[in-house]
Amino acid sequence: MLQWSTGNVGRASLRSVLTHPELELAGVFAHSPEKQGVDAGSLVRRDPVGIPVTTDRDEALTLDVDCVLHMPLPSKRYGDEPGRDLDDLCQLLRSGRNVVTTVGYLYPRAYGDEVFRRLQEACMEGGSSLHGTGTNPGFVADLLPLVMTGLSERIDRLSVLESTDFSFYPSHQVIFEMMGLGATPGDFEEVSARYVAWLSDLFRESLWMLADGLALDLEDERSELDLVLADETFEIAAGTVEKGTVAGQRFRWTGIAGGQERIVLEAVYRAHARVAREWTPPGCRVEIEGRPRLRLDLGDAWVSNALAATAMHAVHAVPHLCRAEPGVRTFLDLPLVVGRHAFRGARNVAAEP
Fold first, then answer.
1. Is residue 314 very low, low, confident or very high in pLDDT (cuts 50, 70, 90)?
2. Cα(311)–Cα(112) distance, integer angstroms
């Protein structure tokens, strides 16, 4: 295994790889110069394992590994090279390395023929496979509703809602710089255009994966964004939200078929739960209108650490991807990913031959 990047998601992944009985760490690539030469175990507050971190991309690419856990900050949103992730993925795949990524590419067909062709050709050239995953988009907006539809005789409308209170999230970079909370309306439009485009691309992938997975021919797709401004100045863990600045965002992506809304994905992000009380309260919900009617309400405490959950779904997907046929492999292609070996302090059952 090669761990590619060691941010919050990457470190959670690295900790798991170091204790996973089916995975063996061969190397770690990080972007921060101060991590050069640091022992991989020490980086995640474990005993040293004798594997130093490298910040040299070319050195990382010389490592002989079966799979790469690709977990950098998404280049579509950060940095000066929006196409860096796609270029890196193609290079890794062409070299014969399978890749699980958390930067998107859950359903690359949503980006058009050119992007899908590049990835697919790289897989064919290297005899490798690519899988994109995440918590949402990913598990909540994709895998969970697909599993639920196995109970459906008729589906009239499928909707997925994620509503989050970010008042407890301590990262100034994520809350203010990336999401644009605390920005004036004018600044939000200018500074956050890249953020809005990146987020919309991710949820469009979910929209098209659901449609294709359920054999639904979409006629059109629509997106909407509503903003709410703070009516007073208040403090959150990441800093100060000033009166008159963006305090809430509501995104909506809709797939149209037969002239009606058939798939609706909604994401509500608040700087505090008291903002825009008329919007859906914090929580996650999947609802399928049809026969029978299905509704799964996860509440607002369904996951204590979404970043760790994202990393774990990627780690658990590795054995499946390494056994898969070459090509882009989505949730529609791989077997169900489960937390095999996740129990601690219990007897491990040997794999069946």
1. very high
2. 27
Is the pTM of the predicted complex or chain greater than 0.70? yes
Which residue range forms the structural domain that includes residue 15?
A: 2-134+307-328
Q: How many domains does the chain have?
A: 2
Quick check: is 335 in a domain?
no
Answer yes or no: is pLDDT of 269 > 60: yes
Confidence check: pLDDT of 353 > 50: no
Distances in Å between the Cα of 71 and the Cα atoms of 109, 214, 279, 314 are 21, 29, 32, 9
- Closest of 8, 59, 13, 66 to residue 36, by C-alpha: 59
Domain annotation covers residue 224: yes
> In this structure, are residues 189 and 90 in contact, taking their beta carbons and an 8 Å threshold?
no
Residue 27 lies inside a defined structural domain of this protein: yes
d(CA 242, CA 283): 25
pLDDT at 346 over 80: no
What ranges in 27-148 are assigned the alpha helix state H?
40-43, 57-61, 84-94, 113-126, 144-148
In this predicted structure, the answer to whether residue 345 has a pLDDT above a threshold of 90 is no
344, part of any domain: no
- Are 58 and 84 contained in the same domain? yes
Which residues face 3 on adjacent strands?
A: 28, 69
Same domain membership, residue 31 and residue 83: yes
* 67 Cβ neighbours under 8 A, 6+ residues apart: 1, 2, 97, 98, 99, 100, 318, 321, 322
Residue 341 pLDDT class (50, 70, 90 cuts)? confident
Amino acid at 290: G
Closest CA to 31 of 9, 12, 6: 6
